[in-house]
Write a structure and sequence with these properties.
Layout lengths: L5 H5 L23 H8 L4 H6 L37
Length: 88
């Protein structure tokens, strides 16, 4: 299989400004985003969380105890010994 030349590859990133067509993002079609919003805000990705292995907790930089994910902010690791008020 022949590899494309450098000129052929760089042509992928060159805009043809002589076409008269404005260069912009995709035009909105007025679709209702409610379904995608619900999937992103709610548990639309719950299947992904169940498919992935549980993350290994990092060690606290101060006391080297494994950190925990608090129920109030389950994406922020915190140390139960150094920051007990944040582990709730």
């Amino acid at each position: 299989m022949a590899h494309p030349s450098t000129a052929e590859q760089s042509a992928l990133f060159v805009a043809d400004l002589d076409t008269g067509t404005p260069i912009s993002g995709v035009t909105s079609i007025g679709a209702d985003p409610a379904a995608s919003d619900a999937a992103l805000v709610g548990d639309g990705y719950l299947w992904l969380a169940t498919a992935l292995p549980r993350p290994h907790p990092p060690a606290c930089h101060r006391c080297h105890l494994p950190e925990v994910l608090p129920a109030s902010a389950p994406v922020l690791w915190t140390c139960p010994r150094c920051h007990p008020q944040e582990t709730r």
